[in-house]
Design brief:
oxidoreductase; Protocatechuate 4,5-dioxygenase, Chain B; single chain; two-stranded antiparallel sheet; alpha/beta
Length: 284
């Protein structure tokens, strides 16, 4: 049996070298996009193709001066931020995996300056709490692939609510940061019906509920129809199976709120993992 994360071990040397050569965003460069990504879990480190897609995406743009990420795996109110530094331990918020994944590290630079800016921007919506907490796997797993040198400061936000209007407002207050080279990320999974995974899905079969929800969501995103997306509970096909709980879908609203042009949506990664949609996208 292959060692856990063997694909990552093979990926890492060339990725580190390429990341070291990546040009860092400079004043005068175009604003970075806002993105929504399907973040996977520790098995991402065993999927060479998916890692290549994420790394190609990250290196298609200048390296950010900072990252602000909201993950499906931190639901708490009021709005809470964490500003990790190299000494902050990660959150290993998963169970039943190989011990290797619990020893992986991602020691990012101090992000307190960016965090103070983010807190000030979001304070117009309500109370903002700064809490010492490491990055959870919805943040560090994809970022370890996209920015393997761990040389970009990262601020993580909580999901304080599942209300689309508030999450859109949060994104809107982060929008100008993109003009400072900050990458705004909503991290979830386009379909996330884990309780309904079957052996056939593990073998690659995509069930109708996953296919239909993904097609509906992408159609609304491509049309810039935020109202339709905000009403997903009433109109999305396959919802009880695609998202029995909604935390992996709603980070999309932070991404949309941070976008300048809703008509600019572009799918960067698609396909499936165990029958679930990996669709990941960016907007300018």
């Amino acid at each position: 049996m292959a060692r856990a994360a063997a694909a990552f071990d093979a990926f890492e040397p060339a990725a580190l070298a390429a990341s070291a050569e990546q040009v860092v965003w400079q004043p005068g460069d175009a604003a970075l996009p806002s993105i929504y990504l399907s973040h996977g879990a520790p098995p991402l480190f065993d999927d060479a193709g998916w890692m290549d897609e994420l790394f190609a995406w990250s290196t298609s743009m200048p390296k950010p001066t900072g990252i602000v990420i909201v993950s499906a795996h931190w639901e708490t109110a009021p709005i809470t931020i964490t500003t990790p530094d190299p000494s902050t331990r990660l959150v290993y918020d998963f169970g039943g995996f190989d011990p290797r994944y619990y020893s992986m590290e991602y020691a990012t630079p101090d992000s307190s300056t960016l965090g103070a800016d983010v807190a000030k921007r979001l304070s117009g919506i309500g109370e903002v709490v700064n809490r010492p907490r490491g990055l959870d796997h919805g943040a560090w797993v994809p970022l370890k692939v996209m920015y393997p040198l761990a040389d970009v400061p990262v601020v993580q936000l909580s999901l304080p609510t599942d209300r689309a209007d508030i999450l859109l407002r949060m994104g809107a207050r982060l929008r100008d940061l993109r003009e400072q080279g900050v990458l705004v990320i909503g991290s979830g999974f386009m379909t996330h019906g884990l309780p309904f995974i079957t052996p056939a899905m593990i073998e690659g079969k995509v069930p109708g509920w996953s296919r239909d929800f993904d097609a509906w969501a992408w159609g609304a995103i491509a049309a810039g129809d935020v109202d339709a997306l905000a009403g997903f509970r009433q109109s999305a096909p396959g919802l009880p199976y695609a998202h029995p709980t909604v935390e992996h879908f709603i980070p999309l609203f932070v991404t949309l709120g941070a976008a300048t042009d809703l008509s600019s949506a572009r799918t960067v990664i698609e396909g499936q993992m165990m029958g679930l949609s990996r669709r990941s996208l960016e907007l300018v």
